[in-house]
Design goal:
Residues 199-208 have a biased composition (Gly residues). Residues 153-208 are annotated as: Disordered. Residues 40-98 form the Replication initiator A N-terminal domain. Pfam families: RepA_N. This is Replication initiator A N-terminal domain-containing protein. The protein is mainly alpha-helical. Among the domains are: 32-134, Arc Repressor Mutant, subunit A (Orthogonal Bundle), CATH 1.10.10.10; 146-181, no CATH class. The chain has six helices and three strands, in the order ααβααββαα. Strands 1-3-2 form a three-stranded antiparallel sheet. Strand 2 (104-107) and strand 3 form a beta hairpin. Helix 2 (43-62) crosses helix 4 and helix 3 crosses helix 4.
Length: 208
């Protein structure tokens, strides 16, 4: 689309923009692995992959997985075409391009329902995998806010007597109080151990 074909006047476009400063916090942007820029994919296929990966992060947070823990995405072709302002035939061509490079797998797990799309990501873009491939030590774990943890869940390495939660649990132990030390349940799906996704079962019949 050329500048003259842009549907909004120049003034409206400028008002919708703000300067990128050192305090700017970005939101609503697509994630795209930089290594894919060297794969020779068409720009359209890269954009579709970015949209699918963005929807995949939502599925990940919502727990939409198969039996092996593979996250699936529900993003109908017509919705992709509408989001990108392209025809269905063009979107299908870009999806086939991603399939040929084994970046996505598509299946229809239940007859008459929307298809599921499974994604694969470059190993170098996964936290810890790059260090493992280069023989480097794993990255330091992120510092967590202690108040994000469940007060009754034991911490790794025992209780911290200087922490409020640790003092509370230590006091309960000394008083003979009963509290649960069972670890919280794992998320939906088991750990991925097979080379491909297993679409039957796991999750509901509707996407996020």
């Amino acid at each position: 689309m050329s500048m003259k074909d842009y549907p909004y006047p120049m003034q409206a476009r400028n008002e919708a923009l703000c300067p990128f400063t050192r305090d700017t916090q970005l939101s609503g942007f697509l994630t795209l692995p930089k290594s894919l820029l060297c794969w020779g994919l068409s720009p359209g296929a890269l954009l579709v992959y970015g949209l699918l990966l963005d929807r995949g992060k939502l599925s990940q947070r919502s727990g939409w997985t198969d039996k092996q823990g593979w996250v699936y995405v529900i993003f109908p072709v017509r919705e992709l075409a509408l989001a990108l302002g392209k025809g269905v035939t063009t979107i299908k061509r870009w999806l086939r391009e991603l399939e040929e490079r084994e970046l996505i797998f598509r299946t229809v797990p239940f007859q008459g329902e929307a298809g599921w799309i499974f994604l694969r990501v470059p190993r170098c873009g996964v936290e810890g995998e790059r260090e493992k491939a280069l023989g480097l030590p794993p990255p330091a774990p992120a510092v967590r806010d202690p108040w994000e943890e469940r007060a009754w869940a034991p911490r790794e390495g025992g209780l911290d007597p200087t922490d409020d939660v640790g003092r509370m649990l230590a006091a309960l132990e000394r008083s003979g109080g009963q509290f649960s030390t069972a670890p919280s349940g794992s998320g939906p799906g088991s750990s991925p151990g097979t080379p491909g996704p297993i679409p039957d079962g796991g999750g509901a019949g509707f996407g996020p």
